[in-house]
UniProtKB/TrEMBL annotation:
Keyword Repeat belongs to the record: no
Protein name (record): Cytochrome P450
Family matches, as InterPro entries: Cyt_P450, Cyt_P450_CS, Cyt_P450_sf
Stored PANTHER family: CYTOCHROME P450 YJIB-RELATED, P450, PUTATIVE (EUROFUNG)-RELATED
Keywords in alphabetical order: Heme, Iron, Metal-binding, Monooxygenase, Oxidoreductase
Lineage: Bacteria, Bacillati, Actinomycetota, Actinomycetes, Kitasatosporales
Family of this protein: Belongs to the cytochrome P450 family.
Length: 436
């Protein structure tokens, strides 16, 4: 739905409207209709992103107060300059949390001190090294048999549903569960079932990156507090295996030699447990959806060496699950000739940057043989670049190949229509993939 408030807005009318792409005050500009949470943008963001790149590459969005940066080279520039573009706002709630919601969080002891994505302090490199140890490429390569075993187990269940009912939702029964189960094995997470972890993780995404109404915010805050309290109890309990992720956090030392405090250890887990599964489940769903939509692709990815990996890469470029990321300026600066004040909240449009024709010719075509196939920014860049990239890529390729081999005869269910979409500030993916 197009928000009436935005309909009336003409860029350039306020203090924020300077530089290229900003309209003349009072002029009706279609970019004024942009609603980052609205159905038209979530369903088909590409025409909007094309316009942003070509007409307003640094655009102030009055509804969120964010400065949208959409050209590939500008997005890279922002991500590669962490001294000017700080990560401090990466996990802030995009929709202001009313007092009633803040009270629920405060009563539950919820806090997210700087840990990983939101940490621009000297404690970041050490914490990042700890995370990277669990997810570096060699460790992921060793985990392939585990990922395949989990994928095959889930596909058995999918097949039995298909046999008994004739259809199955691959999002719920396969794509979402696979990364959660893999993460639990790799990090040694015990004492919680995957469905609960998924519910907590999805609630956290919606509360901090969504635009829920108050009643929903309250429900979500309760789930987020449950998640946080479970993590706090697990970290405090001291019973985690020494080789588990939480065991490693307990042994971690800060640059000044102190052990990690509980709140920061919980903050690290909170981010990794969410980032490590929701995003990859979203990626797998889009990867499967687009492969099923091209009838020749499904049998080919089952057999052709390297094709599943290349297909995943093209989806990451064109339709990544993490669509945007935030930074805040440490001081006044300029991007593409547009002046940003100190404290400007910047939103890098990762999804749009993968369709920048300056970098990717014919960006709308999914082209597994593309020369610069890995030049996308789906995993960010620089100091905070996603340390889970190797795991995410591998899981998605294994999932695609296993599904294409194990379910050769499936197709999107006739009459299923367009799936409902997750449309948060930074996360976009189908919420169903019904096949028959
Ligand atoms: C398709 C799946 C994934 C996508 C698209 C994705 C994307 C991203 C992006 C865009 C960032 C911010 C980068 C920046 O600020 O420059 C990020 C950070 C991060 N991601 Fe991922 N991610 C995915 C999967 C994973 C997985 C599987 C894990 C862990 C197992 C993970 C862990 C992290 C962590 C810990 C950070 C913060 C790193 C830091 O601040 O140093 N992500 N990810």
């Amino acid at each position: 739905m197009i928000s009436p408030a935005l309909d009336a807005w003409a860029p350039g009318g306020g203090a924020a409207g300077h530089g290229p792409g900003h309209g003349i005050p009072g002029t009706r500009d279609p970019l004024g209709l942009l609603d980052l949470f609205g159905d038209p943008f979530v369903r088909d963001p590409y025409p909007w992103l094309d316009r942003l790149r070509s007409e307003a590459p640094v655009h102030h969005d009055p509804a969120t107060g964010l400065w949208l940066v959409s050209r590939h080279q500008d997005v890279r520039h922002v991500l590669l300059d962490p001294d000017v573009f700080l990560p401090d706002n990466a996990q802030h709630s995009v929709t202001p949390l009313p007092v009633a919601v803040l009270r629920v969080l405060a009563r539950g002891g919820f806090a997210l001190p700087p840990a990983l994505a939101n940490n621009g302090t000297p404690t970041h490199p050490g914490l990042r090294r700890l995370v990277t140890r669990f997810f570096h490429a060699n460790r992921v390569a060793d985990a392939v048999p585990v990922i395949e075993r989990i994928a095959d187990g889930l596909l058995d269940e999918v097949r039995s549903q298909l046999d008994s009912t004739g259809h199955c939702d691959l999002f719920t029964w396969f794509a979402q569960l696979l990364p959660c189960k893999v993460l639990m094995e790799l990090l040694g997470i015990r004492g919680v079932d995957p469905a609960t972890l998924i519910r907590w993780s999805d609630a956290s995404l919606e509360l901090f990156w969504g635009r829920p109404p108050l009643a929903r915010q309250l429900e979500l805050a309760k789930l987020v507090v449950e998640f946080h309290q479970w993590l706090t109890d697990t970290v405090r309990g001291g019973t985690a295996a020494p080789d588990s992720f939480i065991g490693a956090l307990a042994r971690h030392r800060l640059p000044d030699g102190r052990p990690l405090d509980v709140a920061t250890a919980v903050g690290v887990c909170f981010f990794v447990f969410i980032a490590g599964q929701s995003t990859t489940g979203q990626l797998i769903t889009t990867v499967l959806r687009r492969a099923l939509a091209e009838s020749a692709m499904w049998p080919r990815v089952a057999g052709e060496a390297g094709l599943a990996e290349a297909w995943v890469e093209e989806i990451l470029r064109r339709e990544p699950p993490v669509t945007t990321w935030r930074r805040v300026t440490a001081r006044a600066t300029e991007v593409s000739g547009v002046r940003l004040p100190a404290g400007a909240q910047v939103l890098v449009m990762l999804l749009g940057s993968g369709s920048d024709p300056e970098v990717f010719p014919s960006p709308e075509r999914l082209c597994p043989r593309r020369e610069n196939i890995r030049h996308h920014l789906a995993f960010g860049a620089g100091r905070h670049r996603c340390p889970g990239a190797s795991l995410a890529r591998t899981e998605a390729a294994v999932a695609l190949r296993a599904a294409a081999r194990g379910l050769p005869g499936i197709r999107p269910a006739v009459g299923a229509g367009e799936p409902p979409m997750l449309g948060l500030l930074s996360f976009r993916a189908p919420l169903a993939l019904v096949v028959e």
